[in-house]
Write the structure tokens for this entry.
Amino acid sequence: MAAEKTSPGLVEVEKTSPEVSGMGHRMKRKEDSRFLQGRGNYVDDVNLPHMVYGQMVRSPYAHARIKSINTEAAKKLPGVLAIITGEDLAKANLAWMPTLFFDKQMVLATGKVLFQAQEVAFVVAEDRYIAADAAELVEVEYEELPVLVDPYKATDPASPILREDREEKSNHIFHWEVGDKAATDKAFADAAVKSKVHAISQRCHPAPLETCGCVADYNKATERFTIYLTSQAPHAHRTLFALVAGLPEQNIRVVSPDIGGGFGNKVPIYPGYVCAVVASLTLGVPVKWIETRSENLQSTGFARDYHMTAELAADKDGKIKAMRVKTLADHGAFNAAAQPTKFPAGLFSVCTGSYDYPAAFCEVDGVYTNKAPGGIAYRCSFRITEAAYLIERAVDVLALDLKMDPAELRRKNFIQPEKFPYATPLGWTYDSGNYEGALNKALEMVGYKELRKEQEEKRKKGELMGIGISSFTEAVGAGPAHAFDIAGIKMFDSAEIRIHPTGKAICRMGTKSQGQGHETTYAQIVAQELGIPAKDVIIEEGDTDTAPYGLGTYASRSTPTSGAATAMAARKIRDKARKIAAFLLEASEEDLIWEPGKFSVKGAPGKAKTIQEIAFAAYTNIPPGLEAGLEAINYYDPPNLTFPFGTYISVVDIDKGTGEVKVRKFVAVDDCGNVINPMIVEGQIHGGLTEGLAIAFMQEIGYDENGNVSGGTFMDYLVPTAVETPHWDTGLTCTPSPHHPFGAKGVGESPNVGSPAAFVNSVVDALSHLGVKHIDMPITPWKVWNILKDKGLTG
Amino acid sequence: MAVTIEKTFRVGEPADKVWAILSDPKKVALCVPGAQITEQVDDKTYKGAIKVKVGPSVTDFKGEVQVVRLDEHAHEIEILGKGQDVRGKGSASMKMTGKLRNVDGGTEVVSTSELNVVGILAQMGARVITEVSNIMFEQFVNNFKKQLQSPEEMNAEAAKPISGVGLAFSALKASFSRHDDKSDSSAESDSGKK
């Protein structure tokens, strides 16, 4: 897919030779040879001498008082080394730990349990089998309490108060509002057309291929702790361990080896990690704890669970005047939302979308229920998926109310390219955009006019076909340090580049790949900036003893932050290389011309020194007055977020007999600014669209009225395979970010953020002539079949 | 998780003889695979236990059974059972109504059970719970018939937990094949509703 430059003159990137493979080259991923040969090194591959195993005892109840825990039978099982309960942790003041968002959560339950599968006791044994058997023998006596599942009943006086530990005796966590209420209400009062949709972004789970786990290794002799951890943010976790457990930070080393997918699920600190650390500290041997699939789905960070109402006010020609949003957020038992903004609803206020209107008002209320804690940003920046889904659904409902074509309605309201940087009514400043460019390209790729004609003919024959558009805007790359932090640590990120005497390099970053291809893309940035072939650059992340401090990888932030830091560090190296080259060529620095890989003397092209020759000189022939070596480090604090965007179009056919929705065609046009590796971008888009498909059609972590999890195994929580996944047609436009060193924006999350609305819009479009305006996700065949049955169409 | 299970089966014996068993919780318990009555509290209340092993999960419910309604004339009984797993893995409650009807050549037993399960068993979902109930019911019917024909033999048999691996496997098999495999007994009908 070749990118069309739609906004020339922003940040141009000159293409290097294939040998160098800088930005824009479809270089094969360097890490893949190890992954494809089964030679990856994941946390569960870490096996240390004398290592023992932990197993969690979990609550079967969603809400119950713990009357007693009897560990006698379990302790008698040969091979059992220790059993830790909440009471034991309480003695060390570790029964509770802070969450990432101004709340606390139980490590092991004391007093009562608040969700099914909550951690109650931690069994340590010589092997995994003994640990699992012993966990079965731990006898916990519970007294069942009334269960609160429905977030709408959280503030009912009749509902039980869940959090006895809080001073405030209420299930209400926060009320947050942003925008100009008076102006918005006035715009609604004056509006010719008012449109409304209630849409639920259902509770779902990233379900990474590798579940969470750790090996905690305390060495009594050195007093050092090495924690091998499934962590998207190793440095932040090291500091949190130091702060929470009171361990000296120099004695903690967090190592994130290969990570099998994170998607936000591996940002929080989980009770299992803390228990393994406590157990290793107590026993003096390494303790491994690895979750099962069900434990991962039932107890670790879920995503979404936003119950949203959006209203749009417009004139009769379809010009949007204002947006009003009211949302109820179900946070489960603890507010463990893993997000570093100052706002309780994260970046949800980008819900005004890609459209230009002056007034908006958004309010969010968060509540506790008897469900697992979380609220992580699943492949998105802190509630962006919810926001993008809401506005793109609302625009389609407005188009239906106005009887306007949804593409035309979008075109009419887009923020125009010359208006950037654009200040949104809810306080964000979009960096750059050309929304119509992406829409036009997508409409052309999908053959929109022909499809509408086909739809008209099919409707006459009683066949069901729909076309759904989503023209989303994402906000990624957290973030500007003034607006984003984790426990006070500002959200910069880092890169350190060391050039070896032979001109090869090693770079270390504060981010951490979970499969995004960092080992390739960062190397390509170095190649682009220094002309050292990407294959000669090793990328290392995840070891807090060696990597520079950073906040980790999520929120599509690696390219906007560490990617930028890599370019900035490389440019420092280039500055020093220029000095060395001037010395070697006996020319003045001003007379040197840089082209990727070498400095030559102006007017004498034969007189040149390659970066490899300069590197060698940095260690062997050091210019007087200059330090030896060729390395640099940069901590990059982006001036703003970046705002990737795109238009996705889904085309579906519906089987009237079964209610099955078949995605016939899907076009994704993305604009993530300048591209580092087009093949990796395509791969990211394919993966994200597949996850979006799963959310739209298959996945939900549901709860019954007793708080039993109904999506707690892969038998109920469905993961799309090649059979369910349609072909993805991808395309790019290119509107570089004006504030990023090489004009990139980040892309990993766009497909997951933008696609659910496209899928849902296409199904609703197929049924809109029957009076259907909205269907909540997941749109299962059963749901569709029931709608068709209601309409008398099942035959 | 609530599941309603309706079952009907026929036996060759007259209603009075069938009622003699159905109206006595101690005798009924003998027919339920894995169940035991351990103590009679009063004329309507009993203490009991039932062990169910589904796959890797053994649940050992201990609780109370109460006869809520006993209509000798209409041959109707309503029983309420409640129990908790002894190791704290969950709880279950059940409201069962049984009704007898005279039919040609014998008696029809109609039972409706509203089962509410909390905990690990519940997570397995209605599809497994329903199938496990189907298998348990099949064994129950066999035991019930045996009880009618040779009660002495039944009473001598100690209550055993129903077979673990076998049960999980048959439940799984049944949940995959339930749509086309209805041939087990023409006199029985079942419907599991979530």
